[in-house]
């Protein structure tokens, strides 16, 4: 049995739909930034860090202990997440505490998990 290709069997271009899609198209800078965010969230270690920060802010030592990783490795991952505005930090003495940057990050995580659990 031959597998069907995911293509149209007839060539009909719906000009209205194409025009509407073009009008709503993302700006190149938005595409780039969104792709970088999804790529960052696609790394297992970074995803686990973000999920851990859903509950409360944590310092590098706590996150490293939670993941069984070195503080250096966690600091590197947190730096990547901070550059993308996925996490923020605050200093208390010599300790940096990290948290999710805003509710949007939390929402992205929750929606992804809902989607996974639906499957």
The structural domain count equals: 1
Helix content: 55-70%
| Oligomeric organization of the protein chains | single chain
Supply Rg. 20 Å
Largest sheet report? 3 strands, antiparallel
CATH domain topology: Arc Repressor Mutant, subunit A
End-to-end separation in angstroms reads: 27 Å
Structural class: mainly alpha
Low-confidence stretches: none
CATH superfamily: Winged helix-like DNA-binding domain superfamily/Winged helix DNA-binding domain
Query: Hey, roughly how much beta strand do the residues contain?
Result: 5-15%
- The shape is elongated
Total count of helical runs of at least 4 residues? 6
Number of strands: 3
Question: In sequence order, what are the helices and strands, one letter per element?
Answer: HHHEHHEEH
The pLDDT mean sits at: 94
Q: CATH class, anyone?
A: Mainly Alpha
Strand order of the largest sheet: 1-3-2
Tell me the CATH architecture.
Answer: Orthogonal Bundle
Folded structure, characterized:
The chain is mainly α and 119 residues long. The protein has a single domain (15-118), classed as Arc Repressor Mutant, subunit A. The protein is 58% helix and 12% strand. It has six helices and three strands. Strands 1-3-2 form a three-stranded antiparallel sheet. A hairpin with a 2-residue loop joins strand 2 (87-92) and strand 3. Helix 4 (60-67) packs across helix 5. It is elongated, with a radius of gyration of 20 Å. The mean pLDDT is 94.
